[in-house]
Amino acid sequence: MKKLLLMVPMLHQGGFERVCVKTARVLEGKWDVTILIFSDKDINYDVSGLRVINIDVPAAGNAAGRVMNLPKRIAKVRAIKKKEKFDIAYSFGSSANLVNVFSREGEKVVTGLRCQTDLESPNQVRLFCRRSDEVLSCSREIVRQLEKDFSYKRSEYIYNPLDVDDIRAKSEEMEKEKDASAAEKAEFTSISDESGTSAHAVGEAGSNIANKATNSHGHLIFGMGRDDRIKGFWHLIKAFSLVKKEIPDARLCIMGAGSFDGAKKLASDLGIADAVALPGVRKNPFPYLAQCDLFVLPSNHEGFPNALLEAMALSKPVIAADCKTGPKEIVLSDDEYEKLIAEKPDGSSVSDITEGEYGVLVPDMCEEPDYEAANITDEDRMLAAAIIAMLSDDRKLAHYAEKAGERAAAYSPACYADSLSDILDGILKSEE
User: Fold this and answer.
1) What torsion do the CA atoms of 246, 400, 140, 98 make, to the nearest 10 degrees?
2) What is the pLDDT of residues 71-103, one digit of tens each?
3) Where along the chain do its domains lie?
């Protein structure tokens, strides 16, 4: 059986980490798969039964440490490659790509460019293109940009796998984290005011979200992702403040890792703290996601947004910012996508609210964090308008709920496994 190495820095959280583990699962029986990680700190994915090698060179906190880390990682990975004699080494993310291309030991090297941010370092992209046998991405837009901007043609895209049945089954489970104590449950409450007293409305909505009580208290809008500027959550909070004026019973939940200190202060400054819940990360977010009426993705950078498709797998209507890669390929039909690219060959964003076949796009939004409550932009207002239009129209909500489920079904793990195996087999058969 052919030997495949999957390389990823950590398995803590994130889209490509999830895809790495899923890839190992779906290729079992087709390939002899090993996952290599740089650190096993805070593993958040189920790797039981999988072969995982940890080289134990965790991320450094400063530039000097990062410079020192690279040769250490390369040396350790090269030794493992030399011993194991893999047929293909496939890396996820820029830091893993660097180690992969510089530790080659006779195997075919495949690097993954999975987000628009990966293309924002042209010298690094050229390095990966020059030293890789193939560049894989999860977006046809990245493939298009590689050819247009870098004249690189040894690239293919394969959409991330989505196990709809598994997501739906998990959405029916109650939270089963090992430390799910009463204190932890209390985390899922509103932002406290200065006196430390949480407002009743969101405290009640937060504590009852898993048992469906939330929906009886109003429309629930959901966002999911880590506290990172590329996720653009300040736009969602500002837009939500406008939504509340039109739909007073609206509630917002943003679930993900991080402190969200800026988001908490912004919500408080906007006077909506009693309607915003920031519960942190959950190993199984789907029982919470299942209770929402609408999922919103305000990201300014994505590759192939798993959170968006996970919401669609639960038949949730979606609104997404049209960042450079990802959302437009999901919420538009193929014909709609091709028409948009013909109109905007540079891949730029839509300029107005666009109702696609499977969801709604709003224009890409500013990537510079702005937590000043007084600064409400036209982008924020347009996002608010799209949310209000969706929540105010039951027929539209029902239509996009049905279309979301239909779209999600197209990304099955079986199709992903077959397509990826064909790509990897083709790489092995290609000439040196």
Assistant:
1) 60
2) 999 999 999 999 999 999 999 988 999 999 999
3) 3-161+412-429, 164-408
| pTM of the predicted structure, to 2 decimals | 0.73
Tell me: pLDDT of 5 over 90: yes
State whether residue 190 is helix, strand or coil: strand
The helix, strand and coil proportions of the chain, stated in percent and rounded to the nearest 5, come to: 45, 15, 40
Do the domains spanning 3-161+412-429 and 164-408 agree at the CATH topology level? yes
What tokens does 385 get?
Answer: 């308008």
Separation between Cα atoms, residue 92 and residue 100, nearest integer Å: 10
Question: For strand 155-157 and strand 3-8, is the pairing parallel, antiparallel, or unpaired?
Answer: unpaired
Better-predicted residue by pLDDT, 353 or 184: 353
- DSSP assignments along 63-131, one per residue: HHHHHHHHHHHHHHHHHHHHHH--SEEEEESHHHHHHHHHS-SSSEEEEE--SGGGGS-HHHHHHHHHH
Q: Tell the CATH topology of 164-408.
A: Rossmann fold (3.40.50)
By the 10 Å C-beta count (0-12 exposed, 13-18 middle, 19+ buried), 325 is classed as buried
Residue 432, Cβ neighbours under 10 Å: how many?
A: 4
Q: How much is the average pLDDT of 173-184?
A: 46
Residue 405: both structure tokens together: 């489920």
Residues contacting residue 147 through CB under 8 Å, at least 6 positions apart: 153, 155
Q: How far apart are CA 333 and CA 197, in angstroms?
A: 47
Q: Which amino acid is at 178?
A: K
Domain boundaries 3-161+412-429, CATH class: alpha beta
Q: Are 397 and 293 in contact (CB under 8 A)?
A: yes
Yes or no: say if 154 and 135 are a contact pair by the CB < 8 Å rule.
Answer: yes
243 φ/ψ angles, rounded to the nearest 5 degrees: -60, -40
Measured CA to CA, the distance from residue 330 to residue 345 in angstroms comes to: 18
- Per-residue model confidence as pLDDT tens digits over 369-410: 999 999 999 999 999 999 999 999 999 999 999 999 999 988
Q: Are 84 and 68 in contact (CB under 8 A)?
A: no
Residue 84's nearest CA partner among 100, 112, 106, 54 is 106
